[in-house]
Amino acid sequence: MEVGQKFPLTIKRLGINGEGVGFYKRNVVFVKGAIPGEEVTVRLTKVSPKFSEAEILNIRKASEFRQEAPCPVYSECGGCQLQHMTYDAQLVNKRDIVVQAFEKYAKEIVESAEIRPTIGMDNPWHYRNKSQFQVRKEGKRVYAGLFSEGTNQLLNINDCLVQYPVTSKITVATRKILQKLNIPIYDGKSLNGLVRTIVVRTGMRSGETQVCLVTTRHELPHKEELIERIKKIDPSIVSITQNVNREKTSLIFGSDTYVLDGKDAIHEKLGEFAFDLSTRAFFQLNPEQTVHLYNEIKKAAALTGKENVVDAYCGVGTIGMWLAEGAREVRGMDNVDEAIADAKYNARTNDNLQHVRFFPGSADKWLFRWSKEDYRPDVICVDPPRTGLEPGFIRTVLKIKPKRFVYTSCNPSTLARDLKDLSKAYKVEYIQPVDMFPQTAQVECVVKLTLKK
């Protein structure tokens, strides 16, 4: 096989990044934009020892689930991967992505555990409550958007179909104000420019919005006029902040944040719980589906009011708080000190959470320490990063053996790997996929494990 080679290909399944997967002379070929069941003619664009990549030349037999992507920049952007597929088909294929991961890393689990249909959204559009659009300038025109897939070319985006509409409206208006006031724009190559990112987050239930300008330095020309103009964009804006990121990095935020106008945080609710969200505070990007996700975690935990619960990798404490009503005590821990500070504040400002406590530090450290103090949880819930659970944490869990273990994962591959280790002591009852990010290839899972007898 060589780059430029053309051949017909039948697409068998969807890959973990949303590409179609076919096999040519026993070689795996990934084809962006292809759908399982389609027959296509492709041209190889990359050849490596383990797999190849190809582009579609023509579709000889189209899938019944193919549709025209509604986004005008879909093929260039790369932020979404599945808009060319009907939503029902997306949900079916996301479940299959989970099945594939287990077939590869833990085949014995996929043969015995129930993998349920994916829980989707009634309206799989305009669900993201936060946008982070990069800012650049060409000539006199200021752009705000995302980089075209695999390039350093910024794609100007006026209306992102997965963003909550007010975030797009405010971003577009803000970049026009930056252009009108001739405020220096970051060029991506040096730190000579000033404004590098526009971040907008809105509280879907509170109706409050925060606008943050990420800049390379603290000094901000035309600051008063800039603030006044931004305030007039939309009545929902109650907070305008500036974050300074002096580093040449792909990370959005730096360490210093300043309030330019209004409050330092916006208010939001998730279920019955209230949260204050400062500029850098973590919060779920799809609040509607988060409620479904957390309710699935609550179902899997099966609390009766008598259990000690550990919320590992707890972030700002939302899962622990969600489970508090049915628990005797909840203890959460996280390596990020800022997240723990937010978790403690959230617990203090909500009623009936006196039995919920949060601790800074690693999950395996606290579990080991508590076991020495004769505190053993009945239920452990985890929601780790994409890299999965730390090996030391798994070893400690297998020693202390809580009755139930609820694993929430955003990466089917590391989930399968970790469940294979945990299955030494636990039975995987079921795996419930949840679609947190419609139109993308990402899929979340909630897994219920019970201690083997």
UniProtKB/TrEMBL annotation:
E.C. code: 2.1.1.190
Any one GO MF annotation of this record: methyltransferase activity
InterPro entries, alphabetized: MeTrfase_TrmA_AS, NA-bd_OB-fold, SAM-dependent_MTases_sf, TRAM_dom, U5_MeTrfase_fam
Segments forming domain TRAM: 1-58
Chain positions recorded as S-adenosyl-L-methionine binding sites: 284, 313, 334, 383
Signal sequence residues: none
Major enzyme class: transferase
Keywords: Methyltransferase, S-adenosyl-L-methionine, Transferase
Pfam families per record: TRAM, tRNA_U5-meth_tr
GO terms of biological process kind: methylation
Keyword Isomerase tagged: no
Family: Belongs to the class I-like SAM-binding methyltransferase superfamily. RNA M5U methyltransferase family.
PANTHER family to which the protein is assigned, alphabetical: PTHR11061:SF45, RNA M5U METHYLTRANSFERASE
Official protein name in the record: 23S rRNA (Uracil(1939)-C(5))-methyltransferase RlmD
Species for this entry: Solibacillus merdavium
